[in-house]
TrEMBL record:
GO terms for cellular component: mitochondrial matrix. Residues 1-135 form the Branched-chain alpha-ketoacid dehydrogenase kinase/Pyruvate dehydrogenase kinase N-terminal domain. It is found in: Mitochondrion matrix. Keywords: ATP-binding, Kinase, Mitochondrion, Nucleotide-binding, Phosphoprotein, Transferase. GO terms for molecular function: ATP binding; pyruvate dehydrogenase (acetyl-transferring) kinase activity. Belongs to the PDK/BCKDK protein kinase family. This is Protein-serine/threonine kinase. It holds the Pfam family BCDHK_Adom3. It comes from Verticillium longisporum (Verticillium dahliae var. longisporum). Its EC number is 2.7.11.-. GO terms for biological process: regulation of glucose metabolic process. Its main location: mitochondrion. SUPFAM superfamilies: alpha-ketoacid dehydrogenase kinase, N-terminal domain (SSF69012), ATPase domain of HSP90 chaperone/DNA topoisomerase II/histidine kinase (SSF55874).
Length: 285
């Protein structure tokens, strides 16, 4: 995707830095591919290959913030629609390739005789429910609670207050997932919900997170809400989307007033924010 960008955009120092990193990573991995169908034949080969992957994962840790800075600086030379198209493709590829690499690394460092979780650049937990970076018994309520504490502290530092959080439904529900992915998703959603709640004048309603287990036959799942909460929201039923595979459903509700009509068309734009713009003096602005 980087090669499809206009030359003047790739000439930006930050974007060029990322381009060079990916070019170097490709040249590092190509010798392994050129070895044929079985590039890893011995345990020593596997150790060397894992070290290569670990180094590459560390190299690309800060790719996203550097890219973001580059696109802000080059925004005169590329349209927001083209930036969105590029980032959609790039992030999908990045998530997939990074997950494959981190899974291999975690499996390596959690296995014998290489057991050394501290040496892994990615979480590698010595826990029976983990297979590499995948937790086969992930309890979303735990992640929601921990990330809510993190977001609440930020909220309190900025606004001097924090909204109450209620987790209801079936908090003991578990499913197989990558914890760090769910942590990122939950954090971003809670940031939006907490901010909307505290910025709405006179709002004292809690942020309510409902966890519904996987339905047995795709039927609606009824959640028994406490009596004091009934009537606060339109429905206590969570219906899985028809075009999605059945699974655990997590619903986050706040009383922050919803998305303003003038903001709605921009919510999927990577460069859009409702915070004050502090980048007016950037080169290229």
């Amino acid at each position: 995707a980087l090669r499809n960008l206009p030359f003047i955009v790739v000439s930006n120092p930050n974007i060029r830095q990322i381009y060079d990193k990916y070019e170097t990573s490709l040249s590092t991995l190509l010798p392994w591919w050129e070895k044929g169908k079985n590039p890893v034949r011995t345990l020593d080969d596997e150790v060397r290959f894992t070290q290569v992957l670990a180094d590459l994962v560390r190299t690309h840790t800060d790719t996203i913030p550097i890219l973001a800075r580059g696109f802000l600086e080059a925004r005169r030379h590329i349209s927001p629609a083209d930036v969105t198209t590029f980032l959609d493709q790039h992030l999908r590829a990045r998530i997939g390739t990074r997950l494959v690499a981190e899974q291999h690394i975690a499996l390596h460092y959690s296995s014998q005789p290489h057991f050394n979780p501290d040496a892994s650049p990615t979480p590698c937990l010595d826990h029976p429910s983990f297979v590499g970076v995948i937790d086969t018994a992930l309890r979303p309520a735990d992640i929601i609670q921990s990330q809510a504490e993190f977001v609440a502290e930020i909220c309190e530092l900025r606004y001097g207050t924090r909204p109450q959080l209620i987790i209801n439904g079936d908090p003991d529900t578990t499913f197989a997932y990558v914890p760090m992915h769910l942590e990122y998703i939950i954090t971003e959603l809670l940031k939006n919900a907490f901010r909307a709640s505290v910025e709405r004048p006179g709002n004292t309603e809690p942020v309510v997170v409902t966890i519904a287990p996987e339905p047995s036959c795709g039927e609606a799942v009824q959640i028994k809400a406490p009596s004091e909460e009934r009537g606060n929201f339109k429905s206590d039923f969570i219906q899985p989307l028809d075009d999605n595979a059945p699974g655990v459903t997590i619903r986050i509700r706040d009383r922050g007033g919803g998305i303003a009509p003038d903001v709605l068309p921009n919510i999927w734009s990577y460069s859009f924010t409702t915070f004050n713009d502090d980048f007016d003096d950037l080169p290229g602005s």
